[in-house]
Specification:
alpha/beta; single chain; about 240 residues; 5 strands
């Protein structure tokens, strides 16, 4: 993806996150924590601060209700993160409040485990934004609770022309070989993961279905870490694409 297309995609992705949060706040629904991945982490932290300020203006939230656990050179200790998250249990005087935890890969195992309950049940008035350069050193139990937004320009996987072209034909309505292939072939878990990765690439290249990208990333992590049938995950996106037409 060239730089201009990447910047367009990035803006649409951020707007999609904002729209998702606003919709859930208006419906008074719980919002799963967003885990943003980007390198370098310093740039990402600044972007999440900007995103949070924009969101606070849209929701008419006082900026004093944006709380940030700043990245340090040391590990995130359980005492410090528990003290920070105590504010999540207090009902705010606004529609919502925003919590940012920078570089959660620096959490100790004990501090990460102490966050699991609030990450799983964040209460309807809390929006949590987490940052990290990658998924490395983050507990699987945290990853499974998060909506992962990978905003890195270079993906860690390559295009598979066979899958990519079948996705293209299916999206454009040229034929339905993609659906037939998923239904008939006996595929391994890695095949399904490869298909989902190519769906992400396709969506980015064509600037469509951007709201699906973080969901697909989360599902890939879920498939990798759990004993589930990935075919049903891919079927879900076949249906979503069809309904978008």
């Amino acid at each position: 993806m060239n730089l201009i297309l990447y910047l367009i995609w990035l803006i649409k992705m951020i707007n999609s996150v904002i729209n998702n949060v606003v919709d859930k706040v208006n419906k008074k629904e719980e919002i799963a924590p967003f885990l943003f991945l980007w390198s370098p982490i310093s740039d990402l932290n600044l972007k999440i601060q900007d995103l949070s300020k924009n969101l606070s203006e849209i929701l008419d939230i006082n900026k004093n209700f944006i709380f940030t656990f700043k990245e340090t050179e040391w590990k995130i200790k359980v005492k410090d993160i528990k003290e920070f998250l105590e504010k999540t249990f207090v009902t705010p005087s606004f529609w919502s409040q925003i919590f940012i935890i920078e570089n959660i890969s620096k959490m100790t195992e004990e501090s990460a485990n102490s966050c699991l309950k609030i990450f799983e049940e964040p209460w309807i008035w809390n929006t949590l934004f987490l940052t990290s350069e990658s998924e490395s050193n983050i507990l699987d139990t945290i990853l499974s609770r998060c909506t992962i937004v990978n905003t890195n320009q270079q993906e860690k996987f390559e295009k598979n022309e066979f899958y990519y072209n079948m996705i293209d034909d299916y999206v454009r309505g040229i034929n339905f070989l993609f659906a037939s292939y998923i239904f008939k072939e006996k595929l391994e878990k890695e095949d399904y993961i490869n298909i989902l990765k190519n769906l992400i690439l396709y969506n980015k290249d064509n600037l469509i279905f951007l709201d699906m990208i973080w969901e697909i990333n989360s599902d890939i992590t879920w498939i990798q870490k759990n004993n589930i049938l990935p075919k049903y995950i891919v079927d879900k996106y076949l249906l979503k694409i069809k309904l978008h037409k």
